[in-house]
């Protein structure tokens, strides 16, 4: 909660790079909303692929791996689980499905945090329960040496700290201390520094990051795995966490390395989403269906340009062709020429 306390105490000075990331994300959000108006069949493949990548990558970051030949079955089937690793990957899938299905309706609360932990940890004895003993974050080297990377918050202080973290998050959203996506990154850093569970904190932090993005109206994690992008940059991920956690207990830390990294992850996800959707070839009849759906959403007079705006990638000739076919049965033309207005019959 120390990062959120900082933001609550005084208006932050936002680093230039963070400002650019937030500007890029604002533009990407608009493009995302346009792309998702396309046929759901086109995005189904991305959605399923992201579910697999997220569950596998988030667990692999923590050293949990499963047989690649079993991944699709674990994600979409109901096989008998072979071992503890498969149980954790399946549990992470269940947590992802809860977030994707609930979206912003799932509150960021203590109850939600404990539920996400319980889901992704499976039947382990302390799933969904805060740590009972102090837990330090240990780094182990290949030669067997180890060191304490960070001393997390004491176990006895954990319940109060998590409650304050959630309360500050809610205040920050309402009082608008900072851009909401930056607030999500701050929440994520505080969660990791509190380290509320004996094990599984990294996985819950990534689920919490995804859920926070839903609360900010950015749902790109539904189609592009944020966890896979973090795994691809794992060394940098650990590096910035160590930088930002120094002096966290005193509230004199620098949160921006981690916050900057998490915003970078989101911008990369948005770019990848745009590239992948752009590579899809539309199935026969899909663009026609998109135009018909856009027409049905109109509530007053509209023109061809209005339909173009709602149907990115669809040509004017096809839009006019669809209007001509529906004329008299579903729509009426209110004038002549290319600038003529239309309306849905019955409106």
CATH superfamily heading of the largest domain = Fido-like domain
Domains, number: 2
Q: Span between N and C termini?
A: 52 Å
Tally of DSSP helical segments: 15
The share of residues in extended strands comes to under 5%
CATH class of the largest domain: Mainly Alpha
Report the mean per-residue pLDDT as an integer: 87
Largest sheet: 2 strands, antiparallel
Give the topology string: H per helix, E per strand.
Answer: HHHHHHEEHHHHHHHHHEE
- Uncertain parts: none
Q: Share of helix among residues?
A: 55-70%
Strand order of the largest sheet: 1-2
Question: How would you describe the overall organization of this protein?
Answer:
The protein is mainly alpha-helical and 347 residues long. The protein has two domains: 2-279, Fido-like domain (Fic-like fold), CATH 1.10.3290.10; 286-344, Arc Repressor Mutant, subunit A (Orthogonal Bundle), CATH 1.10.10. Helices cover 60% and strands 5% of the residues. The chain contains 15 helices and four strands. It has a two-stranded antiparallel sheet. β1 and β2 form a beta hairpin. α2 packs parallel to α12 and α11 packs antiparallel against α12. The longest helix is centred in the C-terminal third of the chain and has 24 residues, at 256-279. The termini are far apart. 37% of the residues are buried.
């Amino acid at each position: 909660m120390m990062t959120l306390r900082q933001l609550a105490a005084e208006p932050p000075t936002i680093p230039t790079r963070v400002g650019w990331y937030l500007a890029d994300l604002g533009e990407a959000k608009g493009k995302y909303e346009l792309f998702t108006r396309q046929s759901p069949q086109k995005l189904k493949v991305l959605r399923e692929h992201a579910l697999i990548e997220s569950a596998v990558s988030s667990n692999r970051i923590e050293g949990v791996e499963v047989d690649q030949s079993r991944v699709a079955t674990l994600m979409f089937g109901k096989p008998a689980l072979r071992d503890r690793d498969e149980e954790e990957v399946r549990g992470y899938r269940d947590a992802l499905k809860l977030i994707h299905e609930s979206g912003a309706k799932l509150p960021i609360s203590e109850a939600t945090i404990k539920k996400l932990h319980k889901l992704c940890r499976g039947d382990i004895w302390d799933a969904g329960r805060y740590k009972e003993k102090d837990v330090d974050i240990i780094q182990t080297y290949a030669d067997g040496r180890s060191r304490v990377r960070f001393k997390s918050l004491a176990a006895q202080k954990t319940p109060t700290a998590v409650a304050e973290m959630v309360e500050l998050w809610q205040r920050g959203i309402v009082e608008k201390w900072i851009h909401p996506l930056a607030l999500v990154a701050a929440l994520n850093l505080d969660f990791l520094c509190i380290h509320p569970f004996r094990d599984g904190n990294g996985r819950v932090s990534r689920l919490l990051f995804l859920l926070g993005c839903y609360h900010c109206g950015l749902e790109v994690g539904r189609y592009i795995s944020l966890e896979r992008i973090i795994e691809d940059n794992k060394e940098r991920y650990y590096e910035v966490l160590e930088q930002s956690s120094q002096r966290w207990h005193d509230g004199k830390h620098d949160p921006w390395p981690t916050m900057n990294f998490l915003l970078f992850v989101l911008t990369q996800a948005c770019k990848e989403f745009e590239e992948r959707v752009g590579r899809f070839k539309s199935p026969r009849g899909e663009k026609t269906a998109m135009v018909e759906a856009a027409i049905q959403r109109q509530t007053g007079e509209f023109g061809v340009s209005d339909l173009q705006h709602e149907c990115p990638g669809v040509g004017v000739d096809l839009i006019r062709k669809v209007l001509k076919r529906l004329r008299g049965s579903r729509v009426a033309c209110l004038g002549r020429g290319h600038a003529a207005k239309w309306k849905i019959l019955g409106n």
